[in-house]
Amino acid sequence: MQHPRTSAGTSVSSSTSTRTSTTAPAHRPRPTRPAGRLAALAAAVTAVVGLTTLGGPAAHGADNPYERGPAPTESSIEALRGPYAVSETTVSRLSVTGFGGGTIYYPTSTADGTFGAVAVSPGYTGTQSSISWLGPRLASQGFVVFTIDTLTTLDQPDSRGNQLLAALDYLTRTSSVRGRVDAGRLGVMGHSMGGGGSLEAAKSRPSLQAAIPLTPWNLDKTWPEVKTPTLIFGADGDTIAPVATHAEPFYATLPASLDRAYLELNGATHFTPNTSNTTIAKYSISWLKRFVDDDTRYEQFLCPLPRPSLTIEEYRGNCPHTS
After folding, report:
1. Of 29, 184, 251, 267, which one's alpha carbon is 20 to 30 angstroms from that of 87?
2. Contacts of 212 (CB under 8 A, 6+ apart)
3. Under a CB-based contact definition with an 8 Å cutoff, are residues 133 and 78 in contact?
4. Pick from 238, 239, 260, 284: which is nearest to 133 by CA?
5. What single string gives the DSSP state of each residue in 243-271?
6. Letter string b/e over residues 261-292, b meaning 16 or more CB atoms within 10 A of that residue's CB
């Protein structure tokens, strides 16, 4: 929805194109290399690039050990599949406590070391099948993704938040793929009440690196306690969780100092996140890469703020990011 904005941050909608820069982005210090070694270094880089091309996705960048995969492009993050082959394993609800089981999607190769992970909750009356498309889509970009079932389909957002955290604990401590997961790089996502649950999880566990609520629903409208970088998706045609009473106030009450964004989908409904959607995937991948992997190569897709388009009604956020 388009309204005059007075909250901190920047809004880009069909009625405004203002951009505001705040704090300069943080960068890791880069080591100084002797000039005499530049030729040797260039040759070494060329060799590594050649081997990477032959062997699969690059393991990581020299300045960021968490980078996974080749340099991104617009087409690579919009593609149905990323550079990693994906495997999956089913987790029975009978074998876990605190949530209802689910499916883990993960990069098949172990050559690149560990990966960041994200747990995803369905919405009210939904099952993991309603958000299953996100599993291979995100995992193929270099994440371990756990799409979960909840204890009951009627669970409320606070319960779903606890279940997302229980799923992450299972994933990192006892699951069959725990050795592939970096337990310090975790995020949460969810649809509808699951989206409200992702906010609850972020409030409860500030160590989370990213939260992405999808057309979220929650009776709690204010979120000043959240310290996790948060991207909220709303839908202009949502009549179940209208953006004016859910997604927009959720975003507006996040701390102004937080890396945060609000993307309102154009021509969309409450249930748009239940089927494969390029806009959701593109910006979710970019957000997870930027904040779970600390991969600034993806900053280009988030800053400057995306413009209104056939699929984006409005985008608000802070640029540049400071986390």
Report:
1. 184
2. 118, 187, 188, 189, 198, 230, 231, 232, 233, 284, 287, 288
3. no
4. 284
5. TTTTHHHHHHTS-TTS-EEEEEETT--TT
6. bbbbbbebebbbbbeebebbbbbbbbbbbbbb
* Residues identified as active-site: 192, 238, 270
Helix (H) or strand (E) holding 312: strand 312-317
Torsion angles phi and psi, residue 170, rounded to 5: -60, -45
Six token digits for residue 178: 């725990």
Residue 281: which H helix or E strand, with range? helix 278-291
What SS3 state is found at 313? strand
pLDDT in tens, 106-127: 999 999 999 999 999 999 999 9
Contact partners, residue 50, CB within 8 Å, separation at least 6:
none
What sections of 79-191 are H helices per DSSP?
134-139, 157-173
Integer-rounded Cα radius of gyration of the chain: 19
Three-state SS letters, 135-149: HHHHHCCCEEEEEEC
pLDDT tens profile 64-95? 899 999 999 999 999 999 999 999 999 999 99
Question: For residue 225, what are its two tokens?
Answer: 């306690």
Cα angle 156, 260, 298 (rounded to 5 degrees) comes to 115
What's the distance, Cα to Cα, between the start and end of the chain in Å?
28
Residues 6+ apart with CB under 8 A from 75: none
Neighbours of 171 (CB within 10 A): 27
Beta bridge partners of 104: 89, 146
pTM (2 d.p.): 0.84
